[in-house]
Every structure is written in structure tokens, then in C-alpha cells.
Amino acid sequence: MEDCIFCKIVNEEIPSEKIYEDDELIAFKDINPVAPIHILIIPKKHISTLMEMKEEDMHIMENIMQAVQKIAKEQKIDVSGFRLIANCGPDSGQEIMHIHFHLLAGKKMGPKIIF
Ligand code: 5GP
Ligand code: ZN
Q1: Which candidate, 3, 43, 76, 82, has a CA 20 to 30 Å from the CA of 108?
Q2: What is the Å distance from ligand 2's center to 61 Cα?
Q3: pLDDT beyond 90 at 114
Q4: Greater confidence, 19 or 112?
């Protein structure tokens, strides 16, 4: 979608430090990391929020979870652990209106979900 930063990253119009790609997804390092490992996992298809997902998009979630497991093993955080967060809508503070999951790891995180 035009003017979407993450679509531009998918199309390589904006550079990113990509760490994973398949037919449907990419994962790349967050430009402003809040943990030693901060990776964003996004579908190549532009979907603005989790609430905009249609029935035919639901398989993307399965693929994202498979990618999470692969990335966690590659990054060697499969045993030490990680936090997976998806913001949706104004109260969450979602800034980029293209579905993404934050994969945070590499430090001991507190009990609060907020980062
Ligand atoms: P949100 O608040 O929408 O859940 O998170 C958006 C995330 O995207 C933020 O953590 C922000 O640092 C990251 N981000 C915004 N613009 C860019 C960019 O151009 N490149 C990369 N790699 N990350 C970005
Ligand atoms: Zn987009």
C-alpha cells in the first residue's frame, strides 16, 4: 500500500536489516530497539490492524508462529525465551498501520507486559 513504511520495507524501497523471509512474511530488526534483540515480523500483505484480518488472512497467523519458532532457534533464544507483542489500535499505541509482531529478547524482562 502506498505511503505505508512497512510495505516499502517489503518492496525494498526502504532498507532494513532483514533476518528472515519467505513467500508471505518478512522479519527485520526494529530501528529503535527496546531490547538487545528486537525483531519485527510482518506479513507481506498490507493489513492495517489485527481487527482488519479477514477469514482468508487467518492462515498468516499460523505462518507467523512457525516463523517465530524458526527465528527463535536461529537467534538462540528458544530456550532463554522471548516476548511477542502485537499492538492494535489507538490505546495500544500502534504507530505503523501494517500488522506486525514485536519479538523481544536478550534480557530478563519484568512482569509488566508494557515495553
Ligand atoms: P508499533 O508502535 O506500531 O507497534 O511499532 C512500530 C515499530 O516500528 C516501532 O518499534 C518502531 O521503532 C519501528 N519502526 C518504525 N519505522 C521503522 C523503519 O523504518 N524501520 C524499522 N526497521 N523499524 C521501524
Ligand atoms: Zn503496509
Answers
A1: 43
A2: 16
A3: no
A4: 19
Asked if residue 114 is part of any domain, the answer here is no
Which ligand does the CA of 3 lie closest to?
A: 2
> Cβ of 70: how many Cβ atoms within 10 Å?
13
What is the CA 95 to chain-centroid distance, rounded? Answer: 13
Domain of residue 16: give its range: 5-105
Domain assignment present for 115: no
Catalytic residue among 59, 98, 100, 102: 100
Say yes or no to pLDDT of 90 above 70: yes
Respond yes or no: is residue 46 known to be catalytic.
Answer: no
Domain count, the chain: 1
pLDDT in tens, 3-14: 999 999 999 999
Domain with residue 56: its CATH number is: 3.30.428.10
The reply to whether 112 falls in a domain is no
For residue 88, give the ligand nearest its CA: 1
Residue 115 pLDDT exceeds 70: no
